[in-house]
Amino acid sequence: MISTRRAIASVILLLGLARADTCSTIEDISNIEVTRPIQLSYINEQIDYWSTSCTALKPSCILFPKNAVEVATIVSVLNNNTENFAIKSGGHNPNNYWSSVKDGPLISTQKLQQVILDKETGIARVGPGQRLDSISAELEGTGWTFVGGRIGNTGVGGLVLGGGLSYMSAQYGWSASSVLEYEIVLANGTIATVSATQNADLFKALKGGGNNFGIVTTYVLQLYRQGDVYGGNLVFLRTPKVDAKLLKAVRDFTDYNEDDKAAVIVTAERGNIDLIDTWILFLFYDGVDVPEGTFKNFTDVGPLLNTLKVQTYAHLMGGSNWVIVKGSIVTIGTETIPMPSAENGEKVMESIHAHWRNVTDTTLLVPGIIASVAYQPFPKRIAQAARERSVDLIDCDDEAHRMIIELNYSFLLPSYYDKMDKTLQETYGGVRERVLGWQKDGTLPDIYLPVFMNYGFYQQDYFARLRPENRAFAKSVSESVDPKGFFRTRTGAGSLDFARPL
Asked: Whole-model pTM?
C-alpha cells in the first residue's frame, strides 16, 4: 500500500502544476467516477439531501469511489492541495457543510454499498452507502437484523458514527455498539483495520466520534436474530387534555416497561397557523406476540388513526420515509434530560412542552413551517446493553433513566434561515436552562447528560458535553491519527468542537 501511495503522489506532483484541483487530478490519474454539475448523476446525488440548504451548496464535482483503495487515492490527492471537501453517506444530517460542500469535491459513498452476510454467525460487512431501508431489504428473509435507526432513508455511515439510537437499543445498545471492526482510510491516505484488538483507541473514538478521524469504507457488524415485528403509528388530534395524557404516558412507559423488545417515540407536530397540530406516535415491538398492556397507556388515549400491525422489519423501514419533508430546509437540535420521577413528572414534562409550544407560536407564519418535538425514552437498559458490548465515547451510565428530546424545524425559504437558526437555539436552550434549574433545586437528579450526536445542531458543542476524560481522549486520538488536522480543518464546522455525521 505504501508503494502504491508513493506512486500516486509522484503522478500528482507531475500533474500538479497543470491541473491542481482534486476533480481534474482524479480524472487524470484514475478510473474513479467523477461527475460534474451538468451530469445527471451529479444532479441526482446533489438533490438527495434531507435539507435543501445542503443541496444549495454546490460541490465542484462529486466523486463515486467503489472501494477503500479508490477512497485512499482521493485522500492522497486532497493531501496535495488545500481544497475543502465533504463525505456523504445518506445526507440525512441537515447541518450545512457536514456532508455537503461548496466549490470543493464531494465524496459520495453511494457505491460503497456492500452487504456480505455470514448466515451462520450473523456477522456482516456493510458499506456506508447503504441506507436503513436498503440494508433491511437486503437482510429480509435471512432471519438476521441490523441495529439501525427508525427512518428508512437514513444513511448507515452517519447513523453508526454518531452512535445510533434504535428501536432495539434496549436489547443491543447503540448501533455503534455492534460494530466489531472498521475498515478506514486515514488522513495520510493509508487503509487501516480498526477493532478492539487493532488500533483499539481509534476503535473507541469511532463509536460516537463522528467522521473526525477518517473515512470508514466498511463496517463489520454483529447482526441479531429477528422474525416479524409489530409496529406502526398512532395519530391524535392535539388538545390540552391529550397533551397531558401523552406526556404522562411517555414518562410512565420508562418506569413500568420491563420488556426490552418494546420501544416508543412520542412526537408533536405543528404547521402554519396550526392547520397541523397533532401527535404522532411510533410504537415498536420486536416480535409478533405483544404482552397485554405494553402500549395500553398510549392506545387508551384514543387515537384518530392506528396503523399498528405485524410486518417485516424491512416493510416497517420502507414505510417510514413519509416523515421526510421534501423540498424544505431542515434544522435539527436536541437535549437530553433526566427522566423525572412520577411525583415531578407533570411539572417537568408539561413545562418543557409548554416552552416548545410558546417558541413555536412565533414560527407559525413562516412559509412552509413544520415544527416537531420528539420525546424518546432512554432507559437505563440502553446504557447497560451498550456497555455489555463495547466501549464508546458516549460512555453513558445506568444511574438513572433519561430522555432524548429531538427538535426539528422545516421551512421553505432560505431567507428565514437565520431566524430559524436562532429559534432552534432558543428551543433547545430553554430546555437546557430548565433542566439545570431543576437539577439545582432537586426536582431532577444531577446526572451526566450527553448531547446525542445524531440530532445535534452545529451550534451545540457535542464534545464539551462528554465526560472530560473522553473529550481529552478523543482529542488525543485525533492528534495521533490526523496530526495535521486534515479532517478537522477541511471538512464540516472546521474543528473538533463538534463532529460531523454524514
From this structure: 0.94
Q: For residue 498, what pLDDT is reported?
A: 39
The closest of 458, 462, 465 to 425, measured between CA atoms, is: 458
pLDDT by residue (tens digit) across 277-312? Answer: 999 999 999 999 999 999 999 999 999 999 999 999
Q: What is the pLDDT of residues 425-458, one digit of tens each?
A: 999 999 999 999 999 999 999 999 999 999 999 9
In this structure, what C-alpha cell is assigned to residue 113?
454499498
Complete DSSP assignment for 55-118: HTS--SEEEE--SHHHHHHHHHHHTTS----EEESS----STTTS--SSSEEEE-TT---EEEE
**What stretches of 176-326 show up as alpha helix (H) in DSSP?**
200-206, 240-256, 296-299, 313-318
The partner residues of 404 in beta bridges, in order of sequence, read 336, 376
End-to-end Cα spacing for the chain: 27
- Summarised one tens digit per residue, pLDDT across range 133-154 is 999 999 999 999 999 988 999 9
Coil, strand or helix: which one is 195? strand
Q: From CA 471, how far away is CA 464, in angstroms rounded? A: 7
> What was the pLDDT predicted at 366?
97
In whole angstroms, how far apart are CA 410 and each of 49, 90, 251, 331, 332? 13, 18, 27, 6, 9
Measured between alpha carbons, how far is 337 from 404 in angstroms, rounded to an integer? 7
Which cell is 443 given? 426536582
The torsion angle over the Cα atoms of residues 345, 397, 433 and 51, rounded to 10 degrees, is -100
Q: In this predicted structure, what is the pLDDT of residue 8?
A: 52
Residue 496 confidence class, pLDDT cut points 50, 70, 90: very low
Q: What angle do CA 88, 333, 149 make, to 5 degrees?
A: 55
Q: Is 64 within 8 Å of 128 (Cβ atoms)?
A: no
Cα Rg of the chain (Å, integer): 22
What are the C-alpha distances in Å from 48 to residues 74, 296, 340, 411, 439? 22, 39, 39, 17, 42
CA dihedral 372, 373, 378, 383 (to 10 degrees): 60
Contact between 316 and 197 under an 8 Å Cβ cutoff? The reply is: no
